Amino acid sequence: MNLPKTAWRNIWRHRRRTLITLSSIALATMLAVIMTGMQDASWRDIIDVAARMGGGHVTLQHPDYLDKPALSRTVTDGAHKTSLALEDVNVRRVVYRIVGQTLLSTAHGSFGAGFIAFDPAVEDNDTLSILEAIVEGGNFESADEGGILLGARLAANLGVTHGKKVVYTMTDRDGQIVTGLARVSGIVRTGSPSVDLGLCLLPIDSIRTALGYANDEATQVALFLDDNRESTPVARRMRGRFDDGTAALTWRETQPDLDSFIAMKKGGMVVFEVLILVLCAAGIFNTLFVIVMERLREFGILIAVGFPPARLFSLVMLESLWLGLVGLALGAVLVAWPYHYLSRSGIDFSALYADQQSIDVAGVGMSMVMKIGIYPESAAAIGLAVLAATLLSGLYPAWRAGRVDPVDSIKLV
User: Fold this and answer.
1) Which of 59, 287, 330, 408 is most buried, judging by how many CB atoms fall within 10 Å of its CB?
2) Tell me, what's the pLDDT at 104?
3) Do both 134 and 216 map to the same domain?
4) pLDDT of residue 413
5) Which helix (DSSP H) or strand (DSSP E) does residue 370 occupy?
6) Sequence-distant (≥ 6) Cβ neighbours of residue 303 within 8 angstroms
7) Which one of 234, 253, 272 terminates a domain?
8) What contacts 203, CB < 8 A, 6 or more positions away?
9) Do residues 335 and 413 make contact, with C-beta atoms less than 8 angstroms apart?
10) Which residue(s) pair with 249 in the sheet?
11) Residues 295 and 272 in one domain
């Protein structure tokens, strides 16, 4: 007996019941792919935006800076560290930044804010996402000009507009208070309250001069990767390349709130997908168990004429395997058009947040248009999970088929 061929014929004995079972597998597969694709794309975009707003996917900084951030804790010999970092195949770009706190003052009052000092000749929207949110004025022309970019709400609180002057005050490496005068080069509106209210951008060489830094000295060296999932291995490799104790931290370590939020959401999605698989497996089990119970007399006759119980077990397991494979194929066909549409056009949530430009997630602006894009390993995991659920659902019915008593079952009418 050709077991695979026989198993294929057996599942189509009751065509309607089989089609209902296959439909449940296909729908479960489609839901899992779409939900996982939304999650993969959303978190990938949020992590990349967070990296472009913060210190990159991997950050090189003073070993004590994370616990006690201060402008006295710096990274030196930045040019050498940059060349070493770019030798890594996963590192796409490397930039210097000075990050700290400052007090901004005008005739209207004084407000504290965080600042990022950067080189406009080296950085652009791909490394500093805030630059694409400039709504008035423009970026700095050089790294040593006396300009400043302000968040929209911060500028409103200070009572300044494009072209007006602001005094900034900060503490240098020796604990001395230093001040500087900057003219507002532009206004930034990201839609994130924490950014628009509490952040400003400054040209890095002007801040280096004010703080007494060397030309290649900074508080952070930001490494940008093509794939944020490579952050941990890249950080691990970076730690072995520097002999001065420079710390290499992933975005998870520099932004723990965002990491915790994503982990919580991923955990909730996994639980939801497991529930879907359990419901799907229950339907498959019911189908296979009914099929086995209806064929007890047939199984008894087969065993009576010498058919091994182990082959009966294999036959029923092959039937469950066929259901899983065909269900997956139908699921792939079913999800093809929705996935294509959502990956290109996405779902626009702007109507729900008409008064905002973005959804704020752990301090990071999230796009109003949600698209999907599943990782290959996530798609493979879904396929394996569906097959595993199908095969597990067939274990008891297959075991029951192999344990049929020929004498009792032949008596069944």
Assistant:
1) 59
2) 93
3) yes
4) 47
5) strand 369-370
6) 309, 312, 404, 406
7) 253
8) 117, 118, 119, 120, 140, 142, 143, 144, 145, 146, 147
9) no
10) 59
11) yes
